[in-house]
Request: fold
Amino acid sequence: MHDAEHLPSAEIERRLLAALCASALDHQTRARILERLSAHTFANRDHEIIFQALAKMPPATAEHIRETLSARLTRLGFPDIDVEPIFEFSPPPPDTITGLLEKLDR
Reply:
């Protein structure tokens, strides 16, 4: 993916989090994203907290994730995190996800 070459880490994080919120994400791709982000030092602290909440959630529909993510963040002690920027993107396709994962932290 050529677009990832010019994206800052925080933007890559946001796009990968958007992918985790997609119900169409296959199990293998979800596992790759979770594994890679669990070892990642986040550029954006809110992204790290959102990731922690998403990593604890079982796979669900995008609608369910959107409806429950803010409540999960509140229970974690972070009621002021705005999750809407995560939902602004359509989830990237698998080849784009691969490019984003490769670009992360470079």
